[in-house]
Design a protein that fits this description.
It contains six helices and three strands, in the order ααααβββαα. It is mainly alpha-helical. The chain folds into two domains: about 5-80; about 90-135, no CATH class.
């Protein structure tokens, strides 16, 4: 038998029965204090009960994992800021107009609505056109 998914094998009543059959009768009792002989008196019922408990435990684990992943995704979504759509920008001063028709400097507007931070420099064209004539 090849184990590809341990959970599938330990919850299957036939596999549990096969494990029970391989137990040596003279070994110590289980963690619940029940011997192999006592367990075997209602073997089918005990195996179905064990399989059901294992399935319920697995279901709870999956639900908890799902809940944790959902919370992580919601947190990530809350942290992510993304600009979408069209931005109305002044052709001259480069201020941006928001939905309330108020004009804002481009750097703070974008920084507040995204995870972008600005640094400043001077492009070669502005350097030639503005800076060099002042020197």
């Amino acid at each position: 038998m090849v184990f590809t998914n341990l959970y599938h094998h330990i919850c299957d009543v036939d596999n549990l029965r096969a494990c029970y059959d391989k137990l040596e009768a003279d070994k110590a009792t289980g963690v619940d204090g029940v011997t192999k002989e006592e367990y075997g008196k209602n073997l089918e019922e005990n195996l179905r009960d064990l399989s059901g408990r294992l399935r319920r435990i697995r279901m709870v684990q999956l639900q908890m994992t799902s809940s944790q992943r959902l919370m992580q995704l919601e947190e990530a979504l809350g942290r992510s800021k993304q600009l979408r759509g069209l931005l109305r920008i002044c052709s001259y001063c480069k201020k941006i107009c928001d939905n309330k028709k108020q004009w804002h400097q481009i750097e703070p507007y974008i920084t507040e609505r995204s995870e972008v931070q600005f640094t400043h420099g001077i492009c070669p064209e502005c350097n030639e056109r503005i800076i060099k004539p002042q020197l």
